[in-house]
UniProtKB/TrEMBL annotation:
InterPro entries, alphabetized: Flavodoxin (IPR050619), Flavodoxin/NO_synth (IPR008254), Flavoprotein-like_sf (IPR029039)
Name of the molecule in the record: Flavodoxin-like domain-containing protein
Keywords: Electron transport, Flavoprotein, FMN, Transport
Needed cofactors: FMN
Keyword Flavoprotein applies: yes
Purpose: Low-potential electron donor to a number of redox enzymes.
Coiled coil feature spans: none
Length: 183
């Protein structure tokens, strides 16, 4: 599975979360690409099976300035079905804890993204071992959510190959797929 992790970090807490998620995805065998969000073209998210986006929250619940260009580019294309999971670090005692994540989540839903319904919000003062565990649990659950459709497709493909009624159809489908690879 091809996974993208984009993040914006000011104090380093969100970056540490991104690294923990990256390590977990590598441990389960995913191809992982990680980059700062302010250098990412939004169209690139279409190339990945699952994307993780992490933000810190600026001021009283605002979007960080490094993510403004990314946020504005969301309106320029159709992202129907592109799967995204959101995470961030912040002060959870504030009135709008990790408010930037909520802003980005609403915008992504409007643009057609399939946004994972669980958002990882970690208090910046939490112990390191708790943060690592929470990031790993979140990554596992998001990966399970993001790969559901592929598992179904794989199951159908195996049934077609192993059932004598569909063997010819599976053979022809494989030849067509080999001649016209999906890019």
């Amino acid at each position: 599975m091809k996974v993208f992790i984009g993040y914006v970090s000011l104090s380093g807490n969100t970056e540490k979360m991104a690294v923990n998620i990256k390590n977990r995805m590598l441990a389960v065998g995913c191809d992982v690409y990680m980059e700062r969000l302010d250098t990412v073209e939004v169209e690139a998210l279409k190339e990945f099976d699952l994307s993780f986006i992490g933000l810190y929250t600026w001021n009283q619940g605002g979007l960080p300035y490094e993510a403004n260009e990314f946020y504005e580019e969301l309106d320029q294309a159709n992202f129907h079905g592109v799967k995204v999971a959101l995470f961030g670090a912040g002060d959870l005692s504030q009135p709008k804890p990790c408010g930037a994540i909520n802003i980005l989540s609403n915008k992504m839903k409007q643009c057609g993204f399939a946004v994972y319904d669980r958002v990882l919000k970690i208090d910046q003062g939490a112990p390191a071992h708790d943060r690592v565990r929470q990031c790993e649990d979140f990554a596992d659950r998001a990966l399970s959510w993001g790969s559901k459709r592929k598992k179904w497709r794989y199951l159908v493909w195996n049934r077609m190959q192993n059932n004598h009624k569909y063997r010819k159809t599976a053979y022809l489908l494989r030849r067509v797929m080999d001649d016209y690879p999906i890019k």
